[in-house]
Amino acid sequence: MLNVLMRWIHISSMATLIGGMVYARLAMMPAIRAMSPEANRALNRDVAAAYRPMVVTAIAGLVLSGLYNLRVNPGHSPRYHMVLGVKLLLALHVFAAAILITKPENPRRERMMTGVVISGLMILAISAYLRRIF
To answer: Which of 43, 91, 94, 97 is the most buried (most CB within 10 A)?
Structure first.
């Protein structure tokens, strides 16, 4: 039962983190460009503040469930660990950028979201590959 719970936490945390970034970057950011600069900044600041607790919770869920999954599933091949290392490096990029994206005043927010979306989708592809060779 604990294995199922940890898997659910891992998947739902990833969906919250990457799904929120995909929505914000591909739907919200283009929509708010038509707003006045003051309203745009205010909405960006308010949305970032509202999303920050979700980002921190999702990161904590991913780290804890990922460590648990790695601990209970030992004995993988060197190739598996090599690909997992790439996935973890991309995950660190996503974590750092997601925290910076939710800062109140971030003039590079849209650009950083693009990087998170790309890295997040690459992580999902790598995860699918790792499940296949596991």
So the answer is: 94
